Please model this.
Amino acid sequence: MGLSDSVIPEVEGTLIFDDKKNIIDATDIGEQRLKEITDLLDAKLNADGYGFLEDDHGYQVQLWGEDDKRIALFIKKPDILQA
Model:
């Protein structure tokens, strides 16, 4: 069972994978982003194992890494022009 919207309400998708590019779990928009695993593995994480990216598809991607696994949380960028 994947991570659900009820667990993390602002997340529109997740992608969990290991350092050998094996997919552990993917939900919603994460299922459409499987080809980006290499880029997500190349992203730098801080000392706490956290990274943050903004992509060209309108999403913020929060990355968490521990041992040989990473989780990517895809969150729609807020529309700051919306009134």
Q: What stands out?
A: Residues 19 and 68 are 5 Å apart (CA to CA). Residues 1-6 have pLDDT under 50 and may be disordered.
